[in-house]
Amino acid sequence: MTAPGAFTEASSSPGETREAPIHAGAKIARAWQALAGVLDPELPALSIVELGIVRRVHIDDSTLVVDVTPTYSGCPAIEAIQLAIHDALAEAGLADARVAIGLAPPWTTDWIAPEGKRRLRDFGIAPPHAGGTRVDITGISPLRRSGAAVPCPRCASTRTRLLAQFGSTACKAQYRCDACLEPFDYFKPH
Ligand SMILES: [Zn+2]
User: Fold this and answer.
1) What domains are defined for the chain?
2) Looking at residue 11, what DSSP letter applies?
3) Residue 122 burial by CB count (10 A; 0-12/13-18/19+): exposed, middle or buried?
4) Phi and psi at residue 186, in whole multiples of 5°?
5) CA 118 to ligand 1 centroid distance, Å
6) Of the candidates 111, 115, 137, 158, which lies 20 to 30 Å from 104 by C-alpha distance?
7) pTM for this one?
8) What is the tens place of the pLDDT at every residue in 154-173?
9) For residue 157, how far is its CA from the centre of ligand 1 (angstroms)?
């Protein structure tokens, strides 16, 4: 069903464990390829690579290590992401891997790839607004409206208003468009 040479389930035959060691560079390339297929649990429109939370893939003492910076330290999705990464790597024949969570420097919405921002919009989520006010993601201070309105991801109208500081997840705020009357999630910049 898949192209010859692809990393299919067939490669997880019993012989897998006796395979010759893969060159470090090839291992890292294979890992990136696998990670590109891991969707973010909270934003399934994006892969974790497009979201910019995979910071580095490297070999540490012959173990493959994936450095991940969650979108914010309290993000409950991080456990789901770790599991998804391990599953994807195991399917690619890289079961012996470690996921290292790093919080410094903190993830910023600026790390979302341009293609990722377009995909968010296609998914009905307003991407972080470059000109928008940075909000306190912890929710301690109220979400402030800046002069720059959040454009509607569906009709691009800027006649939008904040409904709730937290949308479907804490990472997002809920907005409503007064032009097309559709509610939408806004990925809060931080
Ligand atoms: Zn609209």
Assistant:
1) 7-107 (3.30.300.130), 121-187 (no CATH)
2) G
3) exposed
4) -120, 125
5) 16
6) 115
7) 0.67
8) 999 999 999 998 877 777 88
9) 5
